[in-house]
Amino acid sequence: MNMNKVERFDTSSIPLETLETIRSRLNQVHLSLRKLFDQLNHHNRHPTKVRYPSYQSLQSQFQILLTQLHTLTSNLDSNDEQLKSTNVYPLPTFPAAQQENLLTTLLRKKPLPEIDEWIDNAILKCKQLNESTQQSSASLRQVDEFAQWCSAKVEELQEEFHFYGFQTAQELEHSTTEEGEKEKVKKAALESKRTEEERAITDGDKKPLTPNQILKFMFQDVRP
Amino acid sequence: MVQQLSLVASFPHSKYVQTMSTLRALTGIEKPQDISTYTLLTKPYSEFKPKVEPGKVNQIEQYFMKCITTWDDSTSDNLDISVPIIKSGNDESNLWVDTLFGDLNGNTRRNWTLQISDIPTAGKNQTVSAQTVYESTLVHYHTTNTKKGSLANGEPKKDEPVDTEMKDADADADLKEVREVKVENQDESSINTNATTDSFLSFLHDLGYEVKNQYWIKGVRYFHGDIFIETFKVFVRDDDFQSKDNQIKLKLLDSTNTFQVKVYINVPKATDVELINQGSKDLQKFQDFIKNLISLEIPDRMYMDSRVLKS
């Protein structure tokens, strides 16, 4: 009898495919949230035994959640019209009297009041954030413009100069004068004196002994 | 006994100031410890040749022994290693050190550290050199004769013959190297022939060791955690000069004024694997840290083998 009733019911108008994809997405989100919740709860219950999940693992889990939520919203969005025009009602065979609680939950279309509050809060915060960034973006643009102007100016100035070697034109000019020549000689003398000293210290640029040779002398009396 | 983990390096004299200030900054030690030691390198004079028989312990070794004491005369005090030692024609450098037993005005006590070291451990993928070192420090009183004690104390020259006894004992030893004994005092030895003597050299002789060489080490020591960082120069006797006034002339072993660096950690037990691993890691870290200044390397174990080769 009951069976007949169900058979009479036309199921072709139910958007099965759409609902099925949404269901599987929801299931994924549910699993992810469950896992995260369990991890946090586990730590709260045994703070000494179980470690808090690491920053990296939390981060990656949030990342996964975000992607899942994103696909879910896009799914909902693409099936917008069909879902809006769909009405849900229990079949006559549903034990409405026994499962009243479940039924009201399933049939509810509007969010709970506290969820409404969350949503309002989030929207408000988004607005504030947008306003503040708008203000700073104006100044940011100014800064960018200034930086561009600076680099352009530097390039412009650079074109007016030519760079060769490491001496200024004044230094080069000075080196060609008599005094400059003398200085050159003096510098060369200083340089040669320095190398001379270095030679004396290293006993005429002899090759230094390796640590191993020294060790051989210290351990085995073998003169290097 | 300690297990010594070490790395070595060398750097030219021109990098001395830079290296010292880096080490000072790194270790936070403003005034490093001075190293100033005198070492006698000794070797058993008669070879021990056991008959090789199957079923018996055949690896019986003879080792070189280092006898180390402090080098604490005025030359050592005045020697500044930051000043390069340059050989010049008319040698004016005052690298004349007191002979060990030359001037004994009341200072007859010396602490000698006798050191025998095994060949460093072999193995692939070694990060540091690991060597077992055995040390024993003893206090030695250099007494001369008892009969003429008062006389001898007054005149240092009288102490010389003490060492000539050793010379008599092993006549053809390398006495060119060890000039504690001076030729001109030989005629005086007759005075002391029946004196009771206790010279360190004759002690070594009684032990079966002969002095092969001697060297002086001067340098500084820094500490960084458990790591000893030693920077030093090695001096040997300059054979071009005759000894005079109880003093002998020194020269650098490495005439290029190059500094030697040795960084090491002493682990009390060779079996303490954990500490040894930790020490090697520390040394490696230090090696990596300082690699742009001095490149520390693992010394070749063959060069640190102090066993006497059997001919």
TrEMBL record, chain A:
Any one cellular-component term (Gene Ontology): core mediator complex
Gene3D superfamilies registered for this protein in UniProt: 1.20.58.1710, 6.10.250.2610
Signal peptide range in chain numbering: none
GO molecular function: RNA polymerase II cis-regulatory region sequence-specific DNA binding; transcription coregulator activity
Organism (species): [Candida] railenensis
Principal location listed in the UniProt entry: nucleus
Swiss-Prot/TrEMBL keywords: Activator, Nucleus, Transcription, Transcription regulation
Family in the record: Belongs to the Mediator complex subunit 8 family.
Subcellular location: Nucleus
Compositionally biased region (Basic and acidic residues): 172-208
Protein name, as recorded: Mediator of RNA polymerase II transcription subunit 8
Record region (Disordered): 172-209
Subunit structure: Component of the Mediator complex.
The keyword Cell membrane is annotated on this UniProt entry: no
PANTHER family: MEDIATOR OF RNA POLYMERASE II TRANSCRIPTION SUBUNIT 8
Automatic annotation (TrEMBL), chain B:
Compositional bias segments (type: Basic and acidic residues): 155-165
Annotated spans, Disordered: 145-165
Presence of the UniProt keyword Transcription in the record: yes
One biological process term in Gene Ontology: termination of RNA polymerase II transcription
GO molecular function: transcription coregulator activity
Main location: nucleus
One CC-aspect GO term: core mediator complex
Cellular localization per UniProt: Nucleus
The entry's keywords: Activator, Nucleus, Transcription, Transcription regulation
InterPro entries: Mediator_Med18
Pfam families in UniProt: Med18
Role, per record: Component of the Mediator complex, a coactivator involved in the regulated transcription of nearly all RNA polymerase II-dependent genes. Mediator functions as a bridge to convey information from gene-specific regulatory proteins to the basal RNA polymerase II transcription machinery. Mediator is recruited to promoters by direct interactions with regulatory proteins and serves as a scaffold for the assembly of a functional preinitiation complex with RNA polymerase II and the general transcription factors.
Family, per entry: Belongs to the Mediator complex subunit 18 family.
Assembly with partners or alone: Component of the Mediator complex.
Protein name: Mediator of RNA polymerase II transcription subunit 18
Native source species: [Candida] railenensis
